[in-house]
């Protein structure tokens, strides 16, 4: 989708915020697979604030993306990680339980994708940023903002040459499915108090 084109250029911090059905997660999953195809041996990590199991992670979406792009022969999906070309790897981690010492295990990663980033605490964000320190490393964030005090939303609200953030909603997604359009129309009529947050990426009221 054209709304994500600004995120293709190299930038230390890349963000995409918006409501349901925007394609944010699919964009970053596809970009991560592409990065691992073109940068053999790269290490990446997909993080959330709370990850009780891999069912809470982006692992299944990345697996489906690999298959949909016809790249299954280049990746080895294992129980807790995905092996990538050139001995690269995609890891999955929850940040809530990390300490300043344990997070050092992620220092070799060149990409960090923070999914559902509105839930990321300031402590977790402050731990992650200096940890991802490889040359030309990038930190990605996809989220539906909830409050003006959200750590990641506040970070991207300050203009910086190192950071770029786009807002994407359902109307920006040319692949927006009919079944979600019916849900959106229903919520527009019957859930007016939450509609702007859920579908249009506004702050929760």
Keywords:
205 residues, alpha/beta, eight-stranded mixed β-sheet, 6 helices
Strand fraction equals: 15-25%
Task: Count all strands and give the number.
Answer: 8
Look at the helices and sheets and give the structural class: alpha/beta
Series of H and E elements: EHEHEEEEHEHEHH
The strand line-up of the biggest sheet is 3-4-5-2-6-7-1-8
Number of helices: 6
Distance between the termini: 29 Å
Secondary structure: helix percent: 25-40%
Folded structure, characterized:
The protein has 205 residues and is an alpha/beta fold. It has 6 helices and 8 strands, in the order E-H-E-H-E-E-E-E-H-E-H-E-H-H. An 8-stranded mixed β-sheet has the order 3-4-5-2-6-7-1-8, with helices on one face. Helix 1 crosses helix 2 and helix 5 packs antiparallel against helix 6. The chain is globular and about 50 Å long. The mean pLDDT is 93.
Summarize the structure.
This protein is an alpha/beta fold and 205 residues long. 31% of the residues lie in helices and 19% in strands. It has six helices and eight strands; from the N terminus they run βαβαββββαβαβαα.
């Amino acid at each position: 989708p054209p709304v994500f084109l600004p995120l293709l250029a190299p930038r230390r911090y890349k963000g995409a915020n918006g409501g349901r059905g925007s394609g944010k997660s699919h964009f970053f999953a596809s970009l991560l697979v592409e990065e691992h195809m073109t940068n053999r041996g790269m290490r990446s990590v997909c993080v959330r604030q709370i990850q009780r199991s891999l069912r809470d992670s982006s692992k299944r979406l990345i697996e489906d993306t690999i298959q949909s792009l016809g790249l299954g022969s280049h990746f080895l999906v294992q129980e807790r990680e995905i092996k990538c070309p050139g001995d690269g790897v995609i890891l999955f981690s929850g940040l809530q339980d990390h300490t300043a010492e344990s997070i050092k295990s992620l220092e070799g990663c060149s990409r960090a994708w923070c999914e559902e980033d509105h839930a990321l605490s300031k402590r977790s964000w402050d731990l992650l940023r200096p940890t991802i320190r490889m040359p030309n490393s990038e930190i990605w964030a996809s989220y539906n903002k909830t409050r003006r005090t959200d750590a990641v939303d506040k970070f991207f609200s300050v203009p910086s040459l190192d950071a770029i953030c786009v807002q994407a909603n359902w109307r920006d997604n040319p692949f927006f499915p009919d079944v979600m359009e019916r849900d959106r129309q229903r919520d527009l009529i019957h859930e007016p108090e939450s509609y702007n947050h859920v579908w249009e990426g506004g702050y929760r009221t």
